[in-house]
Amino acid sequence: MRFSTSLALVACVLSSSAYAEQLIDFSQTEGFGLSQDKVMIKNIRVDAIIQNPFDPAHPTITSMNYDVPFRFDRPTLHLVPELGGASADTPARNCANLTVLVNNAFNGNVLSGASVMVGNSRSESTNTDGNAVFASLPAGQVQVNASSTDFSPSARTETLVCGDNRLALSLSPTQGAGALQANQVRVILNWGQEPYDLDSHLTGPQPGLSASGINEADRFHIYWWNKTSDDGVVGVLDVDDVDSFGPETVTVSPPSGQTHLRAGIYRYSVYHYGGVGTLADNTSVNLIIGSDSRTFTPPAGSLSGAGDLWTVFELKVDNNGSISVLPVNTYSSSNVSSDVRSGERSATGYGEVESDGLFSQRK
User: Fold this and answer.
1) Does the N terminus or the C terminus of the chain have fewer Cβ atoms within 10 A?
2) DSSP code string of 64-80
3) Which of residues 81, 112, 130 is at a domain's end?
């Protein structure tokens, strides 16, 4: 059976943005029958390049996951996506209000005077509290862009509902304190008002490091309790936010005297420490490598609340400094809060989720 035409249509319909390129990934999908001629395919990942109006040379890659029902068309032997039942033939209602908080990813300070654009037509500047406020927006999916002088722009796709909506975008400095160098990597976590506390965890290679309560041998572990790698240089938790929205920001640098990151596997995870709801509520992770960025949003899946872990991605750094991004997008649950151990991968391939048995210490 052929999927390409149908899934290209799915990607276009499910997004309100114009994408220059799309990649559709079935590797994590699962399906089940709805009737004799209908099937549900869950967790289809769509990677899309979003053209950023503030910086056309550096578009943002956004990964999103969809559950799509398909109808089997017997004459053509095609699976055809069932998209008409959503809101395609219902006029958009301007019933959504949106507040966008813009802050400095390096230190968490709010940015006043930043420009925020919703869709292709609505634009506002942030006030002294770092908020840009929009009223009477159509409910549904929309692209939100933010920019400010001397900062890298940021974008994310958000689904607005009728009533009040809030989200945060954190911008990485390009000048002054915290300016990201070409050989550095930065990971920025933002979320909503609830849960109020999500934790960033980054583990990575550090040969010669002995095992302790917070790491395994030859692996560093950065999180709220251990904000720098043990050499104090390679990895730093720049911001640890505990009261909603973020950012939580981690910056990774080459070891002293070297020109590229230490070779090995780096793993980034998000842990739900406190607050109601789930870590999938309004959460995004922005990975910046040099002048390029990629945004991850939580996949479809079962979450219970505090104690859930989202293992987001791994970075594979080769000896010559080249970096490969390896999406994981896997949940685990019933973990003790705080010590996501560094767990060296097995030989089974990339995208290995942390084992529940390696969660050992309380916050």
Assistant:
1) N
2) EEEEEEEEEETTTTEEE
3) 81
Does the predicted model carry a pTM greater than 0.85? no
- Taking the mean position of all CA atoms in its chain, how far away is CA 196? 17
d(CA 241, CA 317): 28
CA distances from 32 to 2, 73, 79, 86, 325 (A): 18, 17, 13, 20, 30
Residue 321 counted as domain residue:
yes
The count of domains in the chain is 3
Residues 208 and 315 in one domain: yes
CA 76, chain centre distance (Å) = 38
Q: For residue 273, what are the domain limits?
A: 180-363
> Within this chain, do residues 65 and 111 fall inside the same structural domain, yes or no?
no
Question: In a structure prediction context, what are the per-residue pLDDT tens digits for the chain, which is 363 residues long?
Answer: 334 444 444 444 444 444 446 678 787 777 777 666 778 787 777 777 777 677 676 677 777 777 788 888 888 888 888 765 333 333 446 899 999 999 999 999 999 999 999 988 899 999 999 999 999 998 888 899 999 999 999 998 888 989 999 999 999 999 999 999 889 999 999 999 999 999 999 989 888 888 887 787 888 889 998 898 877 679 999 999 999 999 999 999 999 889 999 998 899 999 999 999 999 989 999 999 987 889 999 998 889 999 899 999 999 899 999 998 988 888 887 565 445 655 556 554 556 554 444 333 333
Please name which of 203, 239, 189 lies closest in space to residue 353, comparing C-alpha atoms.
203
Q: Is the peptide bond before 173 cis (omega within 30 degrees of 0)?
A: no
In angstroms, rounded to a whole number, what is the distance separating the alpha carbons of residues 206 and 137?
A: 49
CATH code at 113? 2.60.40.1120
